[in-house]
Amino acid sequence: MASPIHITSKEQFQSLLSSSTFVVADFHAEWCGPCHAIAPVYDQLASQLSRPNRITFTKIDVDKQQDIAKAYAVTAMPTFIVFERGRPTNTIRGADPTKLNQVIRKLATEAGKSEPAGAGDASSSGGAGGGSWLGAPAPKGYTDITDEYDAKGLELLNVDSEFGVARALLGSAKPSVLGNGKTAEDAGADWVESDTDEQLMLFIPFKSTLKVHSLHITSLPPSEGDGDEIPMRPRTIHLYTNRSHVLGFDEADDIPPVQAVTLESGDWDPKTGTAKIDLRFVKFQSVFSLNIFFVDGDGDGEKTRIDRIRIFGEAGEKREMGKLEKIGDEPGE
């Protein structure tokens, strides 16, 4: 059906990771004898099993695309890496045609399963074409990397215990208020609201070092209610990177944010309640933790509501979790 796509840039590869649910990458080198030996097997699999926007086969010359090889810790050739929705899920090292056949044909079975409802809709599909709900299209060339967060270290300050927890914000399910097939009794509150005032502080440690391109914030407060009892959408947001812990509110006030954002009413998509935040990418090139400080809300209410947060960019090498505290509080940060 199709030949493998020869990757000529990091941007091209990231674009394919965003547009195709499954991507298979053959990391090879011209001087590598085993690479040439297994190439006909790989090419035949690509010809038989490629499917537009579902499963894409690529070839990456490690000498010409050293940045990509380094990002995925490729040190031996050939190495085959399978990506699902932009995330590496399986690695085959060496020219083993039997194992390659087994892994790729199992992948093809997965790719052939029926796609989730609404998978072709940008407002309901994941950045790589299925599964995860998004309130807005993923930025071109970047993937949804929200699932890189470390659940054990996740913290949320000033949250009202009557509603959801921090994990709900980073979940991939469609918000219940938009209709996800579950009643409130079944699902529980899948959003968070602030407690004593409008401020919220979310600490997100990551399992790998990220390049963060942008954020999508979804907030779906009710349109009717009693005055200041109606929760607000966030207006001012301060972002802090590479801290070893959740910042206290007073502590955050004393530290200049890496970026401050002000959201206007026109920034929110009327259908999905989602606002896109483009980051100063140069300042978010090596991020292993993120504090998101929701400073105030857009209105006269007393509480702020957040339904979902999605993070877009690139993931790099896995981080040794024990080193977070050691390197998170460097002098002068």
TrEMBL record:
Keywords attached to this entry: Disulfide bond
Kinase found in the keyword field: no
SUPFAM superfamilies (UniProt xref): Galactose-binding domain-like, Thioredoxin-like
Thioredoxin domain ranges (all copies): 1-109
Cross-referenced PROSITE patterns: PITH, THIOREDOXIN_1, THIOREDOXIN_2
One matching Pfam family: Thioredoxin
Segments of skewed composition (Low complexity): 116-125
InterPro entries (UniProt xref): Galactose-bd-like_sf (IPR008979), PITH_dom (IPR010400), PITH_dom_sf (IPR037047), Thioredoxin-like_sf (IPR036249), Thioredoxin_CS (IPR017937), Thioredoxin_domain (IPR013766)
Residue span, PITH domain: 134-331
Domain of life: Eukaryota
Positions of region (Disordered): 111-132
Family affiliation: Belongs to the thioredoxin family.
Protein name: PITH domain-containing protein
Source organism per UniProt: Aspergillus lucknowensis
